[in-house]
Write a structure and sequence with these properties.
Elements lengths: L1 E5 L4 E8 L2 E9 L1 H5 L6 H23 L8 E7 L3 H18 L2 E6 H7 L12 E6 L4 E8 L2 E7 L5 H11 L7 H8 L24 H48 L4 E5 L6 H14 L2 E3 L3 H4 L4 H7 L22
Parallel strand pairs: 1-4, 4-5, 6-9, 9-10
Antiparallel strand pairs: 1-2, 2-3, 6-7, 7-8
Helix pairs in contact: 2-3, 4-10, 5-7, 6-7, 7-8
The structure holds 5'-O-[(R)-(carboxyoxy)(hydroxy)phosphoryl]adenosine (KG4) and zinc ion.
């Protein structure tokens, strides 16, 4: 049985995984604390993690009906993420593993997003190509076996979720804007305005979203308040459409070039209705299968960290204290 802790950004998370059975997964969102600033404030996130981490772990253990003696491992996200936020989780996990006398496992947040696909209710077996699209990451990976992957492509600047959140903000929507943009775009015409698609060249599996964001900024500046008032939903749909086109076309092209017929999705952006619709349509046309974990396993959570921890060797006892949080690095 594994207790996992995840504090890489602004959600305080703990989960208990018993073999293949997810016993509990607790996520305490800090959205309300960051909303007034229009984005995550790292120092606010760290301080809030410190207040929440013990109750969230206690809650996860209680919901799982677990006690310390049931555990074989404590797992924790070590990277990438906000360094102060990660440090709270790492220090907590070290302390618990030491005092309970169980193994400690450090896990990459990216490995976690991929391993969300191995959890119930519908665990996926490799090989597959996985698109990880969230507020902090956008990458395409090729998974041939559980516990490892090859990086196929990644964003060279902003993450897809960041581009959606910043676009939403320019359109006057509240933080975090991705989901609100999704709702507004549903009533708009995505073909009305042309926004650029970064690195749109055959054989290129990387993403770039910063030019798109800048083009929306100039579009709104030049059009003035009038264009926003008249065409808000169409602008939202066209802007979101450009992000989704890049995600769909590059993921499908990557799978095709790897002769892989199975695509998985993870990360908060996989909640996007347009992405789900267009990716399933593209997969149907290509004769590929698409699998998407339940939304609560796609956004940040500790169940995915526990899932990934099953495929990582625990640290030898003497090396525990050296386990450090890192802001960057993928695996
Ligand atoms: O995976 P996640 O919870 O946290 C990170 O690791 O970043 O992803 C959060 C991101 C945010 O950018 C949020 O706006 C986006 O996922 N998101 C959405 C939707 N729901 C959440 N983006 C587009 N459409 C949605 N429905
Ligand atoms: Zn994430």
């Amino acid at each position: 049985m594994i207790l996992a802790v995840e504090t890489s950004c602004d959600d305080t998370c703990a989960a208990v995984l018993d073999g293949d059975e997810l016993r509990s997964s607790v996520v305490s969102s800090q959205d309300e604390f960051h909303a007034r600033y229009g984005g995550v404030v790292p120092e606010v996130a760290s301080r809030r993690h410190l207040e929440l981490i013990n109750p969230v772990i206690a809650d996860a253990m209680e919901q799982a009906g677990a006690v310390a003696e049931d555990l074989n491992r404590v797992a924790v996200t070590t990277h990438p993420g906000l360094i102060g936020a990660l440090m709270i989780g790492v220090a907590t996990a070290k302390t618990l593993a030491y005092s309970w006398g169980v193994d400690l496992v450090g896990v990459s947040h990216i490995d976690g997003h991929i391993a969300a696909n191995y959890l119930p209710p519908d665990p996926v077996e490799p090989p597959f190509v996985c698109l990880i699209a969230s507020g902090g990451h956008t990458s395409i990976v090729h998974v041939r076996e559980r516990g490892s992957y090859d990086l196929v492509g990644q964003t060279l600047d902003d993450a897809a979720g960041e581009a959606l959140d910043k676009g939403a903000r320019l359109l006057g929507l509240d933080y975090p804007g991705g989901a609100e943009l999704d709702r507004l775009a549903a009533s708009g015409d995505s073909g009305r305005f042309d926004f650029p698609i970064g690195l749109d060249r055959e054989g290129n599996h990387d993403f770039s979203f910063s030019g798109l964001k800048t083009s929306l900024y100039y579009f709104l500046r030049d059009g003035g308040a009038e264009v926003l008032k008249r065409s808000r939903a169409d602008i939202a749909a066209s802007y979101q459409g450009a992000v989704v086109t890049a995600l769909v076309s590059k993921t499908v092209a990557a799978a095709r070039s790897l002769s892989c017929g199975s695509i998985c999705l993870s990360g908060g952006v996989s909640a996007n209705s347009e992405l789900r619709r267009r990716l399933s349509e593209a997969c149907r046309e290509e004769g590929m299968t698409l699998r998407i974990p339940p939304a609560e396993l796609c956004t940040d959570n500790a169940a995915m960290i526990a899932s990934a921890a099953r495929y990582v060797a625990p640290l030898p006892r003497g090396e525990w204290l050296a386990l450090a949080a890192r802001a960057s690095g993928a695996s």
